[in-house]
Amino acid sequence: MCTGIRFTDSDGNMYFGRNLDWSTSYGEHVVIVPKGFPSDWAFMADAPAGHAVIGMGIVYENHPLYFDCGNDAGLAVAGLNFPGYAQYEDAPVEGRTNVAAYEFPLWVASTFSTVDEVEAALADTAIVGRPVSENLDVSLLHWIIGDGQRSIVVEYMADGMHVHHDTVDTLANQPAFDWHLENLRSYITATGGLPEPAHWRDAELAPYGSGAGMRGIPGDYYSPSRFVKAAFLNAHYPTKDTEAENVARLFHTLGNVSMVDGAALMANGAYERTLYTSCFSASTGTYYYSTYDEPALRRVRLGDHADADPGRLLELDPQPGAISATIRRVF
């Protein structure tokens, strides 16, 4: 399962991040697609990447399979698990732009500059459930896409494409986004303030201390609960100024819905945990991340690799126990 959020600083610069929760690692690492990289689409005409892209994912036969990523224009996208609801097309749809589900994040980040552009393109887009390989299953996902102005949620279900304006800049897993948004109405009395003492007959009842206004906000790992808590914290966190303050904001917020080993048993008999947390700073093009086993914060700046060979992907090899990282070329 997963949780994602978006917010802006006092100057309107976007910060976008997510938790990826699962029982075992996929071997994910930071992948950079240079501007001009020759994209080999499943159904669309091949074209060079219009934007440089950085994010977390894996590479399969020179295909970057992003879990989340951002581009040099400040647009970001993340895919979150959506089983039981996501339903893609079985085959390409004539007359539409057909995008394989596995390439959707790269298509968004390498092609578009703003959420407005993405939303306009989605009106004529079909998402096709074609696997990248016969040996790999098709992931059932929905996506949050954000820029400095707003975010949207994209869900492809049995009745087709749904694009929601994400007014709380938050996404978790199933059920569908409109259900999550409606469910927030059950928590409208929650507040970050300190309640006034209450009077019951002759008794004055004062709160024990801070936090009393949050009574009722769930704290379990269930998807609806994580959505509520992340949306509440994202809405009430004070707006900050500096990059350091806003990166801290994102990691503190997602840390409140991160999953600890041993607390959430999956149907396969394994326990789910937060494999990594990421943060993309749109203004600096910096990708920050931490992992479950290596919680020290690491960062990679997209601008440091602006002169990368457009014909080659770059993958980041993290150095265990260190904040620094090295870049290796993938041929």
TrEMBL record:
Could you confirm whether the keyword Flavoprotein appears in this record? no
> What are the Choloylglycine hydrolase/NAAA C-terminal domain coordinates in residue numbering?
2-305
Keyword set, alphabetical order = Hydrolase, Lipid metabolism
InterPro entries from the entry?
Answer: CBAH, CBAH/NAAA_C, Ntn_hydrolases_N, Peptidase_C59
Q: Domain of life, per the record?
A: Bacteria
Tell me which Pfam families the record gives: CBAH
Transmembrane segment boundaries:
none
Please state the Enzyme Commission number of this protein.
Answer: 3.5.1.24
Catalytic activity, per the record?
taurodeoxycholate + H2O = deoxycholate + taurine; cholate + taurine = taurocholate + H2O
The protein's enzyme class? hydrolase
Gene3D superfamilies per the record?
Answer: Penicillin V Acylase, Chain A
One Gene Ontology term of the biological-process aspect is:
lipid metabolic process
A molecular-function term among this protein's GO annotations: choloylglycine hydrolase activity
Q: In which pathway does it act?
A: Lipid metabolism; bile acid biosynthesis
Q: Which NCBIfam families match?
A: bile_salt_hydro
Which PANTHER family does the record associate with it?
Answer: CHOLOYLGLYCINE HYDROLASE, HYDROLASE
Q: Can you tell me which family this protein belongs to?
A: Belongs to the peptidase C59 family.
Q: What is this protein called?
A: choloylglycine hydrolase
The protein's organism comes out as Propionibacterium ruminifibrarum
Q: Recall the taxonomic lineage recorded for the source organism.
A: Bacteria, Bacillati, Actinomycetota, Actinomycetes, Propionibacteriales
